[in-house]
Every structure is written in C-alpha cells, then in structure tokens.
Amino acid sequence: MKMIKISPKRRYRCSSFGRRSALTLVEVLAAVVIVGGSVTSLLVAQSNSIHRAASSKRQLTAQHLAKELIATWSLEEASLEVAARGSVPDQEHWAWRRTVEEIDVSQGVSAQQVSLVMIYAPTDRRKKPWSRTFYWLDDESRTR
Q1: Half-sphere exposure of residue 66: CA atoms within 13 angstroms, side-chain side
Q2: Looking at residues 39-43, what average pLDDT do you find?
Q3: Per-domain residue ranges of the chain
Q4: Which of 20, 48, 92, 98 has its CA at a distance of 20 to 30 angstroms from the CA of residue 74?
Q5: Is 103 within 8 Å of 111 (Cβ atoms)?
Q6: What pLDDT sits at residue 16?
Q7: Which residues contact 10 (CB under 8 A, 6 or more apart)?
C-alpha cells in the first residue's frame, strides 16, 4: 500500500469549505443600492402617473363645465358683452371668470373674443388651485 502525504495546509480543508460562498459587504451594499434605486424610480413613476390622471380628470371636467356654461348662455341669449364671474352650480370647488375683448377681424369688421377661465380651487390647502382658459369668437360680427 502506498502512503499519501497530506500537507498541513490541506489537512484541515474539507470539500464544503473549498471556496467562500458568502457575499462581501461591498456586494451587499451594491445590491441594496440597486434595489433601492429601482424601488424609488417605480414610486416616482407611479406618483407621476397619479398626478397625470388627476390633471386629465380636471381637464375633462373643465371642458364639460365650460360647454354647459356656454350652452346655458346661448339658450338664455345672455349678453356676452360684459365681463362676469361666478361659481358653477352643483360643483363645490369650481368657479368661472369670463372676459370679453373687442378685436378687429378685418377692415371695418370687429368681433368679440370671449375667454372663459374655469378655476378649480380645492378646500384642501395642500392642493394647488388649477385653471384652464377657453377662447371663442362671438357669432355676431360687427361693422363699424
């Protein structure tokens, strides 16, 4: 039988301790930074998406309310020559402001440019007020 010499360094080595399988502190920190950055970017994207959805909803509401006001003024045949303001009926946080400006369309012909500003003013002080302006020309052209 042949004797195998085992060196002192190899004597205590076992096959399961051949190479370290644990992560170093630098690797753990790098992984935490990558995961933290990913989670942060996802939360920012979600927040932006929520803000865009809310802004889109306010925009659609403003358009709908503006159409209703214009239709009401058309049916009442109210004079649009006067600037006015008021609150929107049945809408707690919405108000409107109308301004009228005389503009020259061509020589001797003028028209009224009416602007309607829809204002959303929430009671919650953390939310900022929001407004959207709609323009149109009054149908009745005037000659000088």
Answers
A1: 21
A2: 97
A3: 23-143
A4: 92
A5: yes
A6: 53
A7: none
Amino acid identity of 121? A
Query: Which residue type is seen at 50?
Result: I
- Are 110 and 104 in contact by the 8 Å Cβ rule? The answer is yes
Q: Which two tokens stand for residue 64?
A: 């709908």
Q: Residue type for 72, please?
A: T
Helix (H, G, I), strand (E, B) or coil at 38: helix
Read off the pLDDT of residues 69-128 as tens digits, 9 standing for 90 and up: 888 887 876 666 778 889 988 888 899 998 888 888 788 787 888 889 999 988 887 888
List all residues 6 or more positions away from 131 whose beta carbon is below 8 Å from its beta carbon. Answer: 117, 118, 119, 120
What's the full length of the chain, in residues?
Answer: 144
User: Model's pTM, two decimal places?
Assistant: 0.63
Contact 65, 91 (CB under 8 A): yes
Which residue type occupies 86?
G
| Amino acid symbol at 32 | V
Neighbours of 76 (CB within 10 A): 8
Give the tokens for residue 31.
Answer: 């992984």
